[in-house]
Design goal:
Layout: H1 2-11, E1 20-22, E2 28-30, E3 32-33, H2 44-53, H3 66-85, E4 93-98, H4 101-113, E5 120-124, H5 133-136, E6 140-144, H6 154-163, E7 168-174, H7 186-195, E8 199-203, E9 226-230, E10 241-246, H8 247-250, E11 263-266, E12 271-273, H9 287-303, H10 305-324, E13 329-332, E14 343-348, H11 353-364, E15 366-367, E16 369-371, H12 376-383, H13 387-395, E17 404-408, H14 415-430, H15 432-442
Parallel strand pairs: 3-15, 5-6, 5-7, 7-8, 8-9
Antiparallel strand pairs: 1-2, 4-10, 9-10, 11-12, 13-14, 14-17, 16-17
Length: 443
């Protein structure tokens, strides 16, 4: 009973979880959101804080009005709260606000490209496109391989660091996969990377909202150098991303976006750039986004990231046990993996991923995601698609694109929702022919 009451309380913290939606047959049902890896619903505390702050909203920095001073103070103090949430050393590091994690990685890719000739960046086979594409046009890029279970091969990481003989300047690795949920051992990876004179970027978009994470430990070799994450994946959908990085890195060279707020002194012949982080935040900043993110972090801290991690892992184990008992379902990645976030990708034999996702939505009001999840090389590898098949799709874009169905949990999801989901999956499998005919005729 205690556990139920605790889950019920957590659920009451999130906006929209009891929303009724229409099914294909016209009946109404409570929406089940298993698409949290894409974005999360807002916390009520976030919405309340944004509304409460709105009367005090004003342009920050250099304004002498009371509201401007108050807004400026709130904006700058938020960097400290955010840094503490992830255990960053704010004496050494700066907190830079951007639109999202993708923009944060792009910003870093521009800054580092100016600091050494023809450097090598190691990404990996399990990366989201946002931690792959920004490096390609500015660096020599190679990819750390994965093991059979879909997780990163630390042996191949070290092999490639040795192979490039000190030319690797950065290793860019996801904290947790948005396809298989696999968590990477960041401290071990940092230790390896630093032994070979490189730095480590952690894409924390799928990790920071779901598990405790600390950038600083007693062993500096085990600490990542850069961290990015997005507010909209941690219950604060107001358009803010965060890059935490060493101050010294961003004091070298001009920012890639320039304009208001980035300078201290300008003449027609001279520019004196502002200090970090202001020089990296051109234009009027999104202070409401910052207010939203800090409000979300306060609530997540009150719940406890350890409790969130434990609950979501329990939901994941429960779901995997149920899926494992159903014939015709293939789960990708390691089903026995204990160190993971609440993400599971699967397919049903004989049904396309898009059809399964549509049936779940139309017949059960269950939101999942399908496709390649902006991680096409990883999904192609997990599906075992040979290179010549990929080439065919390059030449003929009308060919069907392989993919998977993904469920992803938030701390507010429940075992009952999973039971509803599993029950519908069993029905889909039992009546495959009926559903294929129904949806083919419909289109």
């Amino acid at each position: 009973m205690f556990k139920y009451n605790l889950m019920h309380h957590w659920r009451s913290l999130v906006s929209g979880v009891e929303t009724k939606i229409p099914l294909k047959n016209g009946q109404m049902t409570t929406y089940i959101n298993f698409d949290n890896a894409a974005t999360t619903p807002p916390l009520l505390s976030v919405l309340e804080e944004v509304v409460a702050f709105s009367p005090w909203y004003s342009s920050i920095h250099r304004g002498t009005g009371y509201k401007s001073q108050l807004s400026s103070d709130r904006y700058e103090k938020s960097r400290e709260l955010i840094g503490h949430f992830v255990g960053a050393d704010l004496e050494k590091n700066t907190v830079i606000f951007l639109k999202n994690a993708t923009e944060a990685i792009n910003k870093l890719s521009y800054r580092l490209s100016n600091q050494s000739p023809n450097p090598v960046v190691l990404s990996s086979f399990m990366e989201h496109h946002s931690n792959d594409l920004p490096w390609r046009d500015k660096y020599r890029v190679d990819y750390v391989d994965i093991k059979e279970n879909g997780c990163l091969s630390l042996e191949d990481l070290e092999h490639k660091l040795i192979h490039y003989k000190g030319e690797v300047k950065l290793v860019a690795i996801t904290g947790a996969s948005n396809v298989t949920g696999c968590k990477n051992p960041i401290n071990r990876i940092a230790n390896i990377v630093h032994q070979y004179g490189a730095q480590l970027l952690v894409d924390g978009a799928q990790l920071i909202p779901h598990a405790p994470f600390y950038m600083s430990s007693s062993n500096p070799l085990e600490n990542p150098d850069y961290l990015v994450f997005s507010a909209h994946k941690m219950y604060a959908p107001f358009g803010i991303g965060v890059l935490i990085a060493p101050k010294d890195v961003f004091r070298q060279g001009p920012p890639e976006y320039v304009g208001g707020g980035t300078v201290e002194l300008v003449t027609h012949d001279h520019i004196k750039w502002a200090d970090v982080p202001n020089r990296e935040e051109a234009g009027s900043p999104n202070i409401l986004g910052v207010v939203a993110l800090t409000a979300a972090m306060k609530t997540l801290n009150e719940i406890g990231m350890e409790h969130i991690d434990r609950h979501e892992q329990s939901l994941t184990r429960y779901t995997l046990e149920k899926l494992n008992s159903i014939s015709d379902i293939t789960v990708y990645g390691d089903m026995t993996l204990k160190n993971r976030v609440g993400i599971i990708s699967f397919n049903i034999e004989g049904l396309t991923h898009d059809l399964v996702a549509k049936i779940l939505s139309d017949e059960g009001g269950i939101a999942v995601r399908n496709g390649c999840f902006c991680a096409q090389p990883y999904v192609q590898r997990l599906l075992g698609i040979p290179p010549d098949e990929v080439e065919k799709r390059k030449e003929d874009p009308t060919l069907f694109h392989p993919g998977m169905v993904r469920v992803s949990f938030g701390f507010y999801n429940t075992y009952r929702e999973i039971d509803i989901f599993i029950s519908l999956l069993k029905r889909i499998i039992q009546y495959k022919g009926y559903y294929v005919k129904k949806y083919t005729n419909h289109h």
